[in-house]
Automatic annotation (TrEMBL):
Matches recorded under PROSITE patterns: HTH_LUXR_2, RESPONSE_REGULATORY
Keywords: DNA-binding, Phosphoprotein, Transcription, Transcription regulation
Positions of post-translational 4-aspartylphosphate modification: 52
Taxonomy, superkingdom: Bacteria
Organism: Streptomyces sedi
Protein name as it appears in the record: Response regulator transcription factor
GO biological process, one term: phosphorelay signal transduction system
Domain Response regulatory positions: 2-122
PANTHER family: TRANSCRIPTIONAL REGULATORY PROTEIN NARL-RELATED, TWO-COMPONENT RESPONSE REGULATOR
Length: 214
């Protein structure tokens, strides 16, 4: 797997390189600014991009803006965005094209190497991964919203879907059968009025509905 990293923190970028290369992945380039990320992706054509939300010069949203531009220019390019804090608007924007292959993790998650690598592989494979802390904060909202049509168990299943888990993984986490998970997922699609013809994108649409209700 070929990776391009956009991260201005030297220690973190060096750590990412060490971890990825130890697992046989190729770090094609490490850049520190949004424009340089665009150039690096054009040159190296990576399998997945890892980008910090905030990059020089303003340290506001240069990283995520570059990631969104890359996704617009190269539909489906897998992008995993890292953030110091939960910033829900960025998570929502990343999911807005409904294509999958996106992830949003807090930087603390990188230190949990197994979880981080699992998330990276899911994103590279076209999955959608949301940091559990982001999901927890979204679930904490008490305002009236469409998601309230779901039962407590269906909300649990949807939260795990938002983290990128497959049906068998959800079943193992909740200690329920695969058939039960399938039933809950079907109910979620129905209650959120997701069109049947969307096929493989329906899980991403469910996550979008989850975010848009906050």
């Amino acid at each position: 797997m070929r990776v391009v990293i956009a991260e201005d923190n030297v220690l973190l970028s060096a750590g990412l390189r060490l971890v990825l290369e130890s697992k046989g992945m190729e770090v094609a380039d490490i850049v520190t600014e949004g424009p340089a990320l665009l150039t690096a992706v054009a040159e190296h054509r990576p399998d997945v991009v890892i980008a910090d939300v905030r990059l020089p010069p303003s340290f506001r949203d240069e990283g995520v803006r570059a990631a969104l531009r890359l996704r617009a220019e190269r539909p489906g390019l897998p992008v995993l965005v890292l953030s110091q804090y939960v910033e829900k608007v960025y998570a929502r924007e990343l999911l807005s094209d409904g294509r999958g292959g996106v992830g949003y993790l807090l930087k603390d998650r990188v230190s949990r190497v197994g979880e981080f690598l699992d998330a990276l592989r899911r994103v590279a494979g076209g999955g959608t991964v949301m940091d559990p802390e982001v999901v927890a904060q979204l679930m904490a909202s008490t305002a009236a919203r469409p998601i309230d049509r779901l039962t407590p168990r269906e909300r649990e299943v949807l939260a795990l879907m938002a983290q990128g888990l497959t049906n068998p993984e959800i079943g193992a986490r909740l200690v329920i059968t695969d058939n039960a998970v399938q039933k809950h997922v079907g109910n979620i699609f129905g209650r959120l009025a997701l069109p049947a013809e969307d096929g493989g994108h329906r899980r991403v649409l469910a996550v979008l509905a989850f975010l848009d209700s906050r």
